[in-house]
Amino acid sequence: MSDLSKIALAKEMIESAEKSIRSAKRFLAEFSGDISKDEFIASAIKENIADPTKTEEGKIIEGIFDGEKMIDKEERSYPIPANYASKSKLVAGDHLKLTITENGRFIFKQIGPTERKSLVGPLTFEDGQYKVLSEGKAYKVLLASVTFFRAEVGDEVTILVPADHESQWAAIEAVLPKID
Q1: Does pTM top 0.85 for this prediction?
Q2: What pLDDT was estimated at residue 47?
Q3: I need a surface site. Which of 105, 107, 120, 130 has the fewest CB within 10 A?
Protein backbone atom coordinates (compact mmCIF):
# COMPACT_ATOMS: atom_id res chain seq x y z
CA MET A 1 0.00 0.00 0.00
CA SER A 2 1.45 3.37 -1.00
CA ASP A 3 1.90 6.26 1.42
CA LEU A 4 -0.87 8.22 -0.35
CA SER A 5 -3.26 5.28 0.03
CA LYS A 6 -2.40 5.01 3.72
CA ILE A 7 -3.03 8.73 4.20
CA ALA A 8 -6.37 8.53 2.36
CA LEU A 9 -7.36 5.49 4.44
CA ALA A 10 -6.39 7.27 7.68
CA LYS A 11 -8.45 10.34 6.67
CA GLU A 12 -11.44 8.14 5.87
CA MET A 13 -11.12 6.36 9.22
CA ILE A 14 -10.96 9.69 11.08
CA GLU A 15 -14.04 11.00 9.24
CA SER A 16 -15.92 7.82 10.07
CA ALA A 17 -14.92 8.03 13.74
CA GLU A 18 -15.91 11.73 13.91
CA LYS A 19 -19.30 10.96 12.36
CA SER A 20 -19.85 8.14 14.87
CA ILE A 21 -18.94 10.44 17.76
CA ARG A 22 -21.30 13.19 16.48
CA SER A 23 -24.10 10.63 16.14
CA ALA A 24 -23.47 9.28 19.66
CA LYS A 25 -23.41 12.83 21.11
CA ARG A 26 -26.63 13.68 19.28
CA PHE A 27 -28.30 10.48 20.51
CA LEU A 28 -27.21 11.18 24.08
CA ALA A 29 -28.34 14.80 23.93
CA GLU A 30 -31.71 13.86 22.42
CA PHE A 31 -32.19 11.03 24.93
CA SER A 32 -31.34 13.26 27.88
CA GLY A 33 -33.29 16.24 26.48
CA ASP A 34 -30.21 18.47 26.45
CA ILE A 35 -30.14 19.33 22.74
CA SER A 36 -30.93 22.85 21.58
CA LYS A 37 -32.33 23.84 18.20
CA ASP A 38 -28.98 25.26 17.06
CA GLU A 39 -27.13 22.09 18.08
CA PHE A 40 -29.71 19.93 16.33
CA ILE A 41 -29.55 21.94 13.10
CA ALA A 42 -25.72 21.97 13.16
CA SER A 43 -25.64 18.22 13.81
CA ALA A 44 -28.18 17.48 11.07
CA ILE A 45 -26.21 19.59 8.59
CA LYS A 46 -22.91 17.84 9.33
CA GLU A 47 -24.42 14.37 9.14
CA ASN A 48 -26.96 14.56 6.33
CA ILE A 49 -26.10 17.30 3.87
CA ALA A 50 -24.35 16.61 0.59
CA ASP A 51 -21.76 18.97 -0.85
CA PRO A 52 -22.98 21.44 -3.51
CA THR A 53 -23.00 20.11 -7.08
CA LYS A 54 -23.46 21.46 -10.59
CA THR A 55 -26.08 19.94 -12.92
CA GLU A 56 -27.77 20.89 -16.17
CA GLU A 57 -30.50 22.61 -14.14
CA GLY A 58 -28.03 24.70 -12.16
CA LYS A 59 -26.19 24.61 -8.84
CA ILE A 60 -27.68 22.20 -6.28
CA ILE A 61 -27.31 23.03 -2.59
CA GLU A 62 -28.75 21.01 0.29
CA GLY A 63 -29.59 22.35 3.70
CA ILE A 64 -31.76 22.20 6.79
CA PHE A 65 -34.78 24.43 7.44
CA ASP A 66 -34.37 26.33 10.72
CA GLY A 67 -37.92 27.70 10.91
CA GLU A 68 -37.32 30.70 8.65
CA LYS A 69 -34.53 29.90 6.19
CA MET A 70 -32.35 27.08 4.84
CA ILE A 71 -28.86 26.63 6.32
CA ASP A 72 -26.27 24.83 4.18
CA LYS A 73 -23.17 22.81 5.06
CA GLU A 74 -21.04 25.97 5.17
CA GLU A 75 -23.60 27.59 7.52
CA ARG A 76 -24.72 30.04 4.82
CA SER A 77 -28.41 30.91 4.94
CA TYR A 78 -30.83 31.07 2.04
CA PRO A 79 -34.19 32.87 2.39
CA ILE A 80 -37.17 30.64 1.72
CA PRO A 81 -40.31 32.24 0.34
CA ALA A 82 -42.76 32.39 3.24
CA ASN A 83 -45.61 31.23 1.01
CA TYR A 84 -43.64 28.07 0.08
CA ALA A 85 -42.77 27.36 3.72
CA SER A 86 -46.42 27.89 4.71
CA LYS A 87 -48.06 25.84 1.96
CA SER A 88 -45.48 23.04 2.32
CA LYS A 89 -45.86 23.12 6.13
CA LEU A 90 -42.09 23.11 6.58
CA VAL A 91 -40.87 22.27 10.09
CA ALA A 92 -37.48 23.13 11.60
CA GLY A 93 -35.18 20.23 10.79
CA ASP A 94 -36.62 19.45 7.34
CA HIS A 95 -33.97 18.53 4.74
CA LEU A 96 -34.23 20.76 1.66
CA LYS A 97 -32.67 20.96 -1.78
CA LEU A 98 -32.14 24.33 -3.46
CA THR A 99 -31.53 24.58 -7.18
CA ILE A 100 -30.09 27.90 -8.30
CA THR A 101 -30.74 28.12 -12.04
CA GLU A 102 -28.46 29.78 -14.58
CA ASN A 103 -30.69 32.88 -14.51
CA GLY A 104 -30.48 33.08 -10.69
CA ARG A 105 -33.89 31.62 -9.87
CA PHE A 106 -34.18 29.76 -6.54
CA ILE A 107 -36.19 26.51 -6.60
CA PHE A 108 -36.65 24.81 -3.22
CA LYS A 109 -37.77 21.22 -2.70
CA GLN A 110 -38.32 19.33 0.52
CA ILE A 111 -36.37 16.06 0.28
CA GLY A 112 -36.42 14.77 3.84
CA PRO A 113 -39.08 15.77 6.34
CA THR A 114 -38.13 15.64 10.01
CA GLU A 115 -40.38 13.67 12.33
CA ARG A 116 -43.34 15.80 13.41
CA LYS A 117 -45.88 15.98 16.19
CA SER A 118 -49.16 17.88 16.20
CA LEU A 119 -50.21 20.30 18.90
CA VAL A 120 -53.28 22.50 19.34
CA GLY A 121 -53.48 25.98 20.77
CA PRO A 122 -54.80 29.52 20.37
CA LEU A 123 -53.25 31.97 17.91
CA THR A 124 -51.88 35.10 19.60
CA PHE A 125 -50.04 38.22 18.49
CA GLU A 126 -47.38 39.74 20.73
CA ASP A 127 -44.19 41.72 20.20
CA GLY A 128 -44.98 42.04 16.48
CA GLN A 129 -45.06 38.25 15.98
CA TYR A 130 -47.85 35.70 15.57
CA LYS A 131 -47.52 32.80 18.00
CA VAL A 132 -49.43 29.70 19.00
CA LEU A 133 -49.56 28.78 22.70
CA SER A 134 -49.38 25.06 23.37
CA GLU A 135 -48.01 22.86 26.14
CA GLY A 136 -46.76 25.88 28.07
CA LYS A 137 -44.73 27.27 25.18
CA ALA A 138 -45.24 30.03 22.60
CA TYR A 139 -44.33 28.84 19.08
CA LYS A 140 -43.67 31.46 16.41
CA VAL A 141 -45.57 31.02 13.13
CA LEU A 142 -45.03 32.72 9.80
CA LEU A 143 -47.30 35.63 8.87
CA ALA A 144 -47.78 33.95 5.46
CA SER A 145 -49.25 30.90 7.25
CA VAL A 146 -51.66 33.07 9.21
CA THR A 147 -52.88 34.79 6.05
CA PHE A 148 -52.88 31.58 3.96
CA PHE A 149 -55.19 29.87 6.47
CA ARG A 150 -57.13 33.12 7.14
CA ALA A 151 -56.52 32.65 10.84
CA GLU A 152 -57.38 35.31 13.39
CA VAL A 153 -56.09 35.98 16.88
CA GLY A 154 -57.98 33.71 19.26
CA ASP A 155 -58.56 30.94 16.71
CA GLU A 156 -57.65 27.42 17.80
CA VAL A 157 -55.08 26.07 15.36
CA THR A 158 -53.28 22.79 14.86
CA ILE A 159 -49.53 23.22 14.48
CA LEU A 160 -46.70 20.92 13.50
CA VAL A 161 -43.47 20.96 15.51
CA PRO A 162 -40.38 18.74 15.38
CA ALA A 163 -40.86 15.54 17.39
CA ASP A 164 -37.17 14.97 18.11
CA HIS A 165 -35.86 18.42 19.06
CA GLU A 166 -36.92 21.80 20.41
CA SER A 167 -37.88 24.62 18.09
CA GLN A 168 -39.11 28.17 18.49
CA TRP A 169 -41.05 27.79 15.23
CA ALA A 170 -44.13 25.81 14.20
CA ALA A 171 -46.03 25.31 10.97
CA ILE A 172 -49.77 25.88 10.96
CA GLU A 173 -51.51 22.73 9.77
CA ALA A 174 -55.14 23.85 10.09
CA VAL A 175 -57.50 26.29 11.73
CA LEU A 176 -60.07 24.43 13.81
CA PRO A 177 -63.69 25.34 13.14
CA LYS A 178 -65.45 27.34 15.82
CA ILE A 179 -68.07 25.31 17.62
CA ASP A 180 -70.69 27.18 19.65
Answers
A1: no
A2: 58
A3: 105
